[in-house]
Amino acid sequence: MDFKVVEAKWQKFWEEHPELYWADDNIVKKKKYILVEFPYPSGSGLHVGHAFSFTGSDVYARFKRMQGYNVLFPMGWDAFGLPTENYAIKTKRKPQEVTKENTDMFRGQMKRLAYSFDWGREINTTDPNYYRWTQWIFIQLFNKGLAYKKEMPINWCPSCKIGLANEEVVDGKCERCGSEVERRTISQWVVKITEYADKLLSGLQKTDFIDKVRQAQINWIGKTSGVTIDYPIVDSNKTISCYSTRPDTNFGATFVVIAPEHERVMELTTEENKTTVEDYIKKSRKKSDMERTELQKEKTGVFTGSYCVNRLTGKKMPIWVSDFVVLTAGTGVVVGVPAHDQRDYDFAKKHNIEIIPVIVPKDGSNWDFGKGPYLNIDDALVTNSTFLNGMTAVKAKEKIINYLEEKKWGERSSNYHLRDWIFSRQHYWGEPIPMIYCKKDGWQPVLEKDLPIVLPEVEAYEPSEDGKSPLSKIESFLKCKCPICGGDAQRETDTMPNWAGSDWYYMAYCLVKKLKTNIEANDTFTDIFSDSQKELKKWCPVDVYVGGDEHNTLHLLYSRFIYLFLYDLGVLPKEIPEPYYTRISHGVILGSDNQRMSKSKGNVIVPETVADKFGVDVLRLYLMFMGPFEGTMAWNENTLMGVKRFLDRFYLYIDNQYNLNTDSSISSKVIISKTILGVSRDMESFGYNTAVAKLMEAINTMDKLGRSDLMILIKLMAPMAPYMAEELWEKIGGDGSVHQSEWPVAELKYLREDEVTLPVAVNGKVRGEIKIKNDMIQKIDEVIAMAKSLEKIKEWIDGKTIIREIYVSGKMVNLVVKE
RNA sequence: GCCGCUGUGGUGAAAUUGGUAUACACGCCAGACUUAAAAUCUUGUGGUAGCAAUACCGUGUGGGUUCGAUUCCCGCCAGCGGCACCA
Question: ipTM of this predicted complex?
Answer without folding.
Answer: 0.93
